Amino acid sequence: MPISSLHLSTEQARSATSQTTWLAIISLFLGAACIQLVITRFFNGQMAPDVFASLLHQLVQTKGTPSLVKSLVSYLIPYSVFVTYTLHLALLLAGTLLILRVFIVLGATLMFFGFILLWGLTYMGENSWYFEFLSPALFALILAVSIYKLHKESQYNFRSRLLGAVIAPRVSLLTWSCSIVVASALLFGVFAMSRNGGDYVFTVSALSSITIAVLSIASKYLDKYRNTPPKQDSTPIVGRWIDLFTLTIGVMLVFQVFEDGLLNWFTVEGYRGLINSYVEYGNTPYWYRGALSWVADHAEIFMPIQRIFETFAAICMVILVFRFPVVLLTTGLFAILSFTEFGVTNAWPPAPGKPPAWVFELLLTTLVSFTCGLYYLLDAIAHKSWKHWILGPKIFDSVSDFNKCFLFIFLLIIEIIIFSSAPIQEETKFIALHFSVLSLIPLFFIMIILDKYRAVTPNIDFYTNPNGKNHNQLP
Description:
The protein is mainly alpha-helical and 475 residues long. Helix content is 68%, strand content 0%. It has helices at 10-15, 21-43, 49-61, 67-76, 80-100, 104-122, 134-151, 158-163, 173-194, 201-221, 235-262, 268-281, 286-297, 299-319, 323-340, 360-382, 386-390, 401-419, 428-450. The longest helix is centred in the middle third of the chain and has 28 residues, at 235-262.
């Protein structure tokens, strides 16, 4: 008899874990990024209306700014006071909701629009990284749509849609609180190394880590009011959203491979110069900078290794093959790069006095990638099949052949248009974007073709017992 038609017993409620747990974890990470960004911008003076207005005027005067962006910015300039306070209050509210895991759809939507606005105002800036605010915005958009779609299922009542699902039913509030205290101490160290906050770096680090910790503990306390929804066979559904997070990271990595090549960082001398800049201007421990110096001295070995791996990982994450090993290994690379770049400025070449890069610029991608990799690892353990491990489950099983053909034709037309046109600007980031799109469309073709050979997901989830009996069913 399906468990969905019964009330959960106390033991079942303790042992059941909603598949939305994976999305809830990502929600925590996105919320932490919002909170830290708002606090940092407040102490840096970036929330001041005159500073915000100056940024808008600078963007209007920047050569190459798209006319649509100029029109929008020109409209916002008279309302700079209202816009800057509304923007940061919206991001603060978004971070609070995402960490508390209440009104997740609203929080993620606010984060998406807030970060899209920040991206639109900064991506034309000198030496700004194209995905600094774009990738958090895309992650927030995926989270908002995924939670909204999952909550439309009948087993989610109003309380579940309002408060979300229990994230760790077997973990007590005390254990959770102790873990959060340890994690917040680590976050304080990370924030301090990033030098975010300038002269107020320790204030920003302490206030950010404490705020995130308090909200995380409050989120666990709210579990007593949350329902534990019955474990339906939602693993394939959640898996598709995890795939979309992975695909987004893969697209970002494709862009980065091209941009690094155009910046000559994938040459021996360019790679050595890049590593030496991290040694000179980074804020990592001395022993780590010593290791980086050794890597720089052997750039002829490490440069091709990193280039080959990044290219291979980007391709695999876009066409969605070798999911759990590639995503976990790429997470390791992201973690190393995040740690290496702590305290380094976005400006190139780095120079004293320049503001350091935002700590979550790459750290957020690292955390999301780790969540996806862990999901794929547990999924691979649950499905002992070489086809499942290599190609993964089907992605377009609900898409008809006619629609696949239509998608093929549409992508082919886009490829022809882009191939026959030149980059809109000669700046490196736009040339990299042009070549990225040219490369991504054939990869999307391959992803669709491979779907024919992917494994059909059996009707099991991570919680199927060793004897093959699904806990979703009662005897």
